Amino acid sequence: MNIKEQLAALGLTLPTAAAPVAAYVPAVKSGNLIFTAGQLPMVDGKLVQEGKVGGEVMAEDAKELAQICALNALAAISLVADFDQVERVVRVGGFVNCAPGFTAIPGVVNGASEFLIKVFGEVNGKHVRTAVGAAELPLNAPVEIELVVQLKILSFNQREAGTLILQSSAISPD
User: Fold this and answer.
1) CA–centroid distance for 148 within its chain
2) What is the pLDDT of residue 158?
3) CA nearest 146: which of 119, 121, 116, 124?
4) pTM of this prediction exceeds 0.85
5) Beta strand 42-43 with 33-36: parallel, antiparallel or unpaired?
6) CA–CA separation, 140 and 105 (whole Å)
7) Which distant-in-sequence residues (6+ apart) come within 8 Å of 167 by Cβ?
8) What residues contact 18, with CB distance under 8 A and at least 6 apart?
9) How far apart, in whole angstroms, are the C-alpha atoms of residue 144 and residue 69?
10) Helices (H), ranges, 10-155
11) Do 75 and 17 touch, CB atoms closer than 8 A?
């Protein structure tokens, strides 16, 4: 099952990648890694909820918002690579806009981690992670998630086959 089929099985569709809110790009490919910018819980261009977790935003709601952020990060990845070329999730960075005294930060970021394991599977979805509490986040978002994913490396034969296909399609049958 490919990634889009897996998302459909979860009742989700890949959204349109959110436009940057400042001077950056949503994702960058470097070698066989893709780094996403931090993604906010935006749906149809609007922040789903604002506020501090442990204050105006309940931790359970923030966990669901972290899943939306991760889905948005997948949309950003699709801007720079064929989605089915993603081999595994390498790293998740999670930032939680915390009310004073709120310390259940890892539980909030689990929303993204658990979602990615459902999408990519137990082996390729598990990752290293940072979960950080923040005094403020952009647009007063409750949570922000960034990803690093690894792309599959094409074997020599796959690259050679692609080259041969390109060369043969350039030859005219005259």
Assistant:
1) 8
2) 54
3) 116
4) yes
5) unpaired
6) 16
7) none
8) 26, 39, 40, 42, 45, 72, 75, 76
9) 6
10) 59-77, 105-125
11) yes
Q: What is the pLDDT of residue 84?
A: 86
Count of beta carbons in the 10 Å neighbourhood of residue 158: 11
- Residue 10 CB neighbours (<10 A): 13
Token pair 């105006």 in the structure block, residue: 56
The pLDDT score that the predictor gives to residue 18 is 86
Per-residue tokens: 68: 């939306």
> What phi and psi, each to the nearest 5 degrees, are found at residue 16?
-70, 135
Burial of 70-103, coded b for 16+ CB within 10 Å and e otherwise, reads bbbbbbbbbebbeeebbebbeebbbbbbbeeebe
Residue for token digits 């506020």? Answer: 51
Enter the tokens of residue 116.
């990615």
Is 164 a residue whose pLDDT tops 80?
no
Residue 24 carries which DSSP code?
S
Is the pLDDT score of 109 beyond 70?
yes
Place of tokens 């940057």: 20
Domains of the chain: 3-170 (3.30.1330.40)
Contact by Cβ (8 Å): 39, 72: yes
Spatial distance between the Cα atoms of 3 and 10, rounded to a whole number of angstroms: 11
Nearest to 132 by CA among 28, 67, 53: 53
